[in-house]
Amino acid sequence: MSSLSVTSLNKSYGHVHAVVDVSFEVARGDVFALLGPNGAGKTTTIEILEGFLKRDSGDVRVLGVDPGVHANQRWLRSRVGVVLQELAVESFFTVRQVLERNAGFYPEPRAVDEVIELVGLRDKADVKVKKLSGGQQRRLDIGLGIVGNPLLLFLDEPTTGLDPAARRMTWELIRTLSQQGTTVMLSSHYMDEVEALACHVVVLSKGRIAASGTPSSLGGRDLGKVAISFSIPPGISVTDLPVAPSGCQGQRIEISTDCELEVLSRLTSWALVKDIQLVGLSVTRQTLEDVYLGLTRESLASSDGPRS
Ligand code: ATP
Question: 43: CA distance to ligand 1 center in Å?
Answer without folding.
Answer: 7
